[in-house]
Amino acid sequence: MTTVRVTLEADGSLKAAEAGGHAGTELRGGNIACAAVTVLLRTTLGVLASAGDADPDSALFVDATTPGRGFLAFRITGRSGADKPVLRYAARFLLEGIASLEREFPAEVKLLAETACGPNEQRKDLEE
């Protein structure tokens, strides 16, 4: 199973995303659900990584890690007010895309969506 965690800021903008595991028993590249999760995450990462190039007011910076096969994580480490629209859209894009895959392939894809919180609060699951 591939588990995808999407973390949002309180304003609905994307804070972080990570995916781990492998959907199904097929060899690498042989599972459509796993490939679809990968495409959604890589596309979002690519758009965010280049978003600052298009807007001089942007302070958007994304830190990505891929410590091994079957794992991808990225988090927003720098942003300005100008970046809020693209980060909100990125959140909506990922949540809708992964939720759609979870509905179609419930045994292979799991979405965990949460909002970030301050230092004295616990994370809040978006489905509560």
Topology:
Elements: E1 2-8, E2 14-21, H1 32-54, E3 61-65, E4 71-78, H2 84-104, E5 109-115, E6 124-125
Parallel strand pairs: 1-5
Antiparallel strand pairs: 1-2, 2-4, 3-4, 5-6
Descriptive account of the structure:
The chain has 128 residues and is α+β, with helices and mostly antiparallel strands. The protein has helices spanning 32-54, 84-104; strands at residues 2-8, 14-21, 61-65, 71-78, 109-115, 124-125. Helix 1 packs antiparallel against helix 2 (84-104). The longest helix has 23 residues, at 32-54. The two termini are 23 Å apart. 30% of the residues are buried.
Number of strands: 6
From the N-terminal CA to the C-terminal CA, the straight-line distance is 23 Å
Count of the domains: 1
Radius of gyration: 15 Å
* Gross geometry: globular
Low-confidence stretches: 119-123
**Which CATH class is shown?**
Alpha Beta
Average pLDDT metric: 84
